[in-house]
Amino acid sequence: MAQTVMTERERIEQAVTRFFHMCNTHCPGNLAPLMTADVELAAEREARGQEDVHSYFVWLWQTYPDLTFRVEHVIVDGTAAAAEVTSEAKGLRLPRCVVFNFRDGLIRRIKWY
Question: Which fold has domain 8-112?
Answer without folding.
Answer: Nuclear Transport Factor 2; Chain: A, (3.10.450)
